[in-house]
Every structure is written in structure tokens, then in C-alpha cells.
Design a protein that fits this description.
The protein has 3 helices and 7 strands, in the order ββαβββαβαβ. It is α/β, with parallel strands linked by helices and about 140 residues long. It folds into 2 domains: about 30 residues; about 70 residues, Nucleotidyltransferase, domain 5 (2-Layer Sandwich), CATH 3.30.420. The longest helix has 21 residues.
């Protein structure tokens, strides 16, 4: 859309045009400043405040029944509790020791030199047998 003013031959003509472009540079600058502010302020919002909490007067709930330990040794030996089993016998041994209770928590312990695939085969065998509560056991790392 243009406007032309014609006031005679001696007057200089101006050609006014509409500019439809928006300059987004200031918008981007504001967004970047806000991003930096939130990046600096977010860690400050999660500061832990030391609190001396009161003791709990409620009686503790009894611990669950003894968990079942499945151990994979470095040489590939497989144990359920202290009983040596093969991978094919694993499900039957687990059912026998848990009395068929599929809600029993199973703890899978593996030597750190055991291949990942071996641990996954043991875990898949237990899951196919119906055990969904399988936990991996590790030792606590001591800080130097």
C-alpha cells in the first residue's frame, strides 16, 4: 500500500511504503537474558537446608520375608541362595524356594567380570517365570 501526495510540479514527491518486516533481534536478546537468569536461579532454588527432624513414634512395619539371592559367579556358575543350578533349572529352583510366591523380591548378584548378556539371560529367565521384582546388587563405592 503506498501513499503519493501530488501538490504540483515544484513539490518533491515522497513514496511512503508499508514495512511488514518485524525485527526479532530484541526479542531474541530478551529471551537469552531470561534463559541465563533461570539457569543461574534454578540451582539456588534447590539448596538443602539442614534440619534436625523429630523422631518417629510409630512402630516400624515388619520387614518382608527373606529375599531370594541369585548369584552369577565370574566363571559363569549360577546359584540360587547357596544351591548351584543351571539356567534351565533356575525358574524351578526359584519357585521351590519362594513357594510359588511371585511377589518375592529377588536380588541378582553378579561378579563384575560377568558379561552383560549373561546377566540379562538370567534376568529374562526369572521374568519369564513370573518374577517382576528383581533388584541388582552392588557394593557401595568408597570415596578416596
Amino acid at each position: 500500500m503506498g501513499i503519493q501526495l501530488d501538490s504540483g510540479p515544484t513539490v518533491k514527491r515522497h513514496n511512503y511504503q508499508q514495512n511488514a518486516e518485524i525485527n526479532i533481534t530484541p526479542f531474541v536478546d530478551v529471551i537469552l537474558v531470561l534463559l541465563i537468569i533461570f539457569m543461574v536461579a534454578a540451582p539456588l532454588a534447590t539448596v538443602d537446608v539442614p534440619v534436625d527432624l523429630p523422631s518417629n513414634a510409630a512402630t516400624p512395619s515388619p520387614p518382608p520375608t527373606d529375599p531370594l539371592y541369585v548369584t552369577v559367579q565370574a566363571d559363569g556358575g549360577l546359584f540360587v541362595q547357596e544351591q548351584s543350578v543351571s539356567l534351565q533349572q533356575l525358574a524351578a529352583a526359584a519357585h521351590e524356594l519362594t513357594a510359588g510366591n511371585l511377589e518375592t523380591r529377588l536380588f541378582l548378584r553378579g561378579d563384575q567380570t560377568v558379561e552383560y548378556g549373561t546377566l540379562m539371560r538370567v534376568m529374562n529367565t526369572l521374568q519369564k517365570a513370573g518374577y517382576a521384582r528383581i533388584s541388582l546388587v552392588a557394593t557401595e563405592e568408597l570415596e578416596p
